[in-house]
Amino acid sequence: MATAKDSTKDKTTAAAAKKTARASGSKSPAASVETRQKRAQAVAAKSTNRKAAQAAAQDSKSLSDLFEHALGDIYYAEKKIYKSLPKMIKAADHPDLVAALTSHREETAGQIEKLEAIFELLGKRAKAEKCEAIDGILEEGESLLEDFGASVAADAAIIFSCQAIEHYEITRYGSMRAFAEALGLDEARQHIEDILAQETAADTQLTELAEDSVNAAATDYDEDEGAAA
Ligand SMILES: [Fe+2]
Ligand SMILES: [Fe+2]
Question: Could you tell me which PANTHER family the record lists for this protein (predicted)?
Answer without folding.
Answer: PROTEIN YCIF (PTHR30565:SF9)
